[in-house]
Backbone:
DNA sequence: GTCTATAACGGGATAGAC
DNA sequence: GTCTATCCCGTTATAGAC
């Protein structure tokens, strides 16, 4: 039995193997700094790994980022689904989605990628972002349509438009919160939207 | 009289002097690619200028970017003010603001900066962004309050919250449009918001 | 699998000639 | 004012040892 080295205290050392630590570190850094501004070296430091490990497990920064981003989008979908597919009225579920606990100042790990020039120029990176936000809008639309069918919302409501609006309030709330470095901007945007939704509800 | 060289056909050559061309090129590049992803060389090529010119007129990339960004935010304020301070009902003015012609896929030249890590880390760059979006929300709030006073909107409306919501719909609309590379996502978000506003209006 | 050494390249700025 | 040469550094990847 080899002597077990004490694991250097770091952020990404919870019993993961090297490959997992690399992915986890990349996921965090993509969220914090985006793709273009994250260097392989940043990842290696955060993951307590060496260059050799990274280029052994992945072809390079891009492949690593794609895998991390796909995982990230999966997380976001699961969290959104938790609110939107819960029991309750349509209005309840939309409100629950809008009010989900969010670290507003961090911004959206998916939406932020749309302003990263390298992501826009790399189809394999843009694809999961596009797919996820498209999925989100479709889920919102489905819930809103259920609300219309149930008589919660007037039949004149355009479910698809409203779904885009709700998704946009969240994405824009993050932008406003980050601009002013004030999380309450996000909350205000969301509460204003909820007020509007309640205003048109039966 | 020296022989006039034919101006090489470029984007930024409309009779501007070198300093103006540098600023104009920077403004465009900040919009398209953000701050971190824009290199001095990119700017020099776009402005048809040499390095010497840039470091003569400006201390470096940062100072140049600050001045370009301040100009950019001034433009945005003027455009928004054009809609929000026009004659008409409060609802009209908010609708006009929301429907202003926008090149949705380009995104917001101000809002996008909030996801640029270098901008967040540089107070002189973040300041004009924060100021401008704060100003925008305040303007929207003022208009909405006028609408409440005029009886257009119910007195139960929270003007400040609703102002954040309207600003967020625009910022988020850009994100959704860019994600799907589809300008109609922006329009849908905006039209959904207008539907909600009309729904609560008297 | 992981390490270190190295390399090719570009970013950002400075120096000094013109 | 503008030009070119030069410099230092970080990014991204490869090579080959262990």
Residues:
């Amino acid at each position: 039995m080899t002597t077990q080295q004490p694991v250097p205290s770091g952020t990404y050392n919870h019993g993961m193997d090297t490959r997992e630590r690399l992915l986890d570190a990349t996921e965090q850094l993509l969220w914090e700094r985006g793709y273009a501004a994250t260097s392989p070296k940043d990842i290696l430091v955060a993951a307590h790994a060496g260059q050799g490990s990274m280029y052994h497990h992945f072809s390079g920064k891009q492949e690593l980022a794609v895998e991390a981003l796909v995982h990230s989008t999966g997380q976001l979908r699961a969290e959104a689904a938790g609110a939107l597919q819960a029991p309750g009225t349509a209005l309840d579920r939309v409100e629950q989605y809008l009010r989900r606990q969010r670290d507003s100042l961090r911004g959206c790990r998916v939406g932020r990628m749309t302003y990263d020039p390298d992501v826009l120029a790399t189809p394999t990176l843009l694809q999961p972002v596009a797919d996820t936000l498209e999925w989100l809008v479709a889920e919102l639309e489905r819930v809103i349509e259920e609300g219309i069918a149930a008589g919660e919302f007037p039949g004149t409501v355009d479910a698809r438009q409203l779904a885009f609006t709700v998704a946009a309030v969240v994405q824009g709330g993050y932008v406003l919160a980050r601009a002013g470095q004030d999380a309450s901007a996000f909350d205000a945007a969301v509460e204003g939207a909820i007020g509007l939704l309640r205003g048109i509800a039966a």
Remarks:
- Confidence is low (pLDDT under 50) at residues 1-10 of chain B.
- The longest helix of chain B spans residues 123-149.
